[in-house]
Structure formats: C-alpha cells, structure tokens
Amino acid sequence: MQLKSKLITVTAGVAFAAMTSVSAFAQQVTLTISSWAPPTHGVNAILWPEMIKEIEAATDGRVTAEIKYGLASPPAQYDLILDGAADITWIFHGYTPGRFVTTKMIELPGYVGSAEAASVADWRAYEKFFAPLNEHKGVKVAGLMTHGEGVVHSSTKIDSLDQIAGLKLRIGGGVSGDAGKALGASGIRVPAPKVYETLASNAADGVMMPMEGKASFKLFEVAQNTYTVPGGFYRGSFAIIMNQDKFDSLSAEDQAALNTVFGENLSRIGGAMWDTIDQVGADKLAASPDNTLTEASPEDVAKWNALAGPIIDNVIAEITAKGIDGAAAYKFITDTMKNY
Fold this sequence. Notes:
The chain is an alpha/beta fold.
C-alpha cells in the first residue's frame, strides 16, 4: 500500500509538471517582425532589439519576437501585416501616395528639434488630432517615428540652391516629393534599399535623405556631396504597425503589457535611434576625405523659406479638408518640439 501510494504521488507529480510545462509552452508567443532595410541599419540593429527586450521584460518572457527579412518589398509591408503574413513591421508613409494624409504634417520642413522630439510630437499629435481618421485601417499602430532633417546628397557638388533645379533626385514620396518639385528637381521614386544601385548606375544625380544615409546606404561612395538647410528640406514619416488579430489573440495581461511598450514610448525609442544613426552618418562623411558638406548661405536659406511656405500651407489645407484643424496641429507639433 505504501509503494502504491508513492507511485500515485510520483505519477501525480509528473502529470502536474507536464501540465505546467504544456501551459508555459502554450503561453509562449513569438511575434514575427518583417523588416526591409539592411540588417546593419539602425532599425534592425537598434530599434527592434530594444523593442524585443522591452516586450520580454513587460510580459515576463511570455512574448518575444524575431526579425525576418525579404518577406515583401517596402511598399508592400502594410498589406503583409493586414494579411497576417507577419505580425509587426515598419512602413514609410510616402511609399503609398494618397493612402495617408495627416502623416505629412510631421514631414514639413523647418521644424526645429531632434528626430526624438519630432517622433514624440508626432505621436502626441496623432492621439490629439489624427487617430479618429483611422488612416491605418485594419492594423494596430504601435508607434510613429520620423527621421532627422532631410538633406540632398549628390554626386556633383552643390554650392547654391539654384543648382538643384534640373537634377534627377531619388525622392521617397510625401513632402519630400513636394520639396523636390519646389526646387525644380526631377523626382525618381525607388525604395531606400535601391538607392545605392540607382546612384551607382547614374540613373539619378542624387538623393533626398537624412544624414544617416551616408553610412546606412553607403552614400559616401556614390553621393559624396551633401547640401543642407536649417530644419531640413523635409522629414520622413514612419509607422510601426502590428496585425490587429495577432494582438487581440494575446491574453488581456499581455495586451496591457505591450501597450506599455508601444505608443509614445516606442515612438521615442524610434526617434532616438534615428538621431543616433544620423550622427553615425555625419561621422562617416567627416571621415571620408572625398566627401563634402555645404550649408546653405543666408541668401539661399531665405530662398528656401519662400519656397517652403506654400508647401506648409498646402499640407495644412489638405489636412483641414479632412475635418482636422490643420493650423492647430501644426502649432501643436512646433510647440511640442520646441519645449521637448
């Protein structure tokens, strides 16, 4: 009887351990992150690892994530998430013209402040003004971010604003397209990963990108000259999005945990990442003897401000037409960045 009792106890213990193991296994979720820039890019080397670390900490390890490359082209990332082929990705709003309107507000030239400040301001403006329009229909918006000031990198040296007219520039879309048009440049639309080969083949004379492109996309080799204006010609707008069904399938506890990682927190992390890699790009430029940096003269700054005015007015009007107080949103972002 004593042996039988021990056997029952041991069997029950093994069964309980097995059930506990199965339960723990069932709660373990690995999210698939689709990414499209080179693995060395800051999004993949800095942003995703930091987000994964925070997700694991917030959920006590119940939820984690892994990065996969080559699942879809940059413009197809949104639909990839909608279809559930991946769980999380980052999108550049300018790759799908007409799909997003309010995201152009953060892209406007002239904002003073870091990419971190701009990304936080963008998220706060989204919550205060833009979220009801549901432009990211069907997905969960986990964060918003913007890169640093957009500048012109070119194969030939630009000494004045007027020299940009007539150049063939790779332009990503959104406000950068408006800026290129105002400058008299011919726009060529190719995703960021195709920039190097576009310039190397002389299909374009230059590119509008932030300073980080010098290192991230090896522009120091094919676009050795950089021309800047205060506040940049534009900023690029991105969203970090998640499949809504996947989010809804998580436990209520893990949904709440992810929401502490997402939102303004993830937007801040993203913006800080862009600031970090902008500095890496600037350092690469400085370390390349055949690369030059030209800052616009006061006369050219005045010229650009005159050209930028209508771009700003048009975006404000476009957003106002959606039923949003565009002027108030513009002031809100400007003030938030100023006081960040």
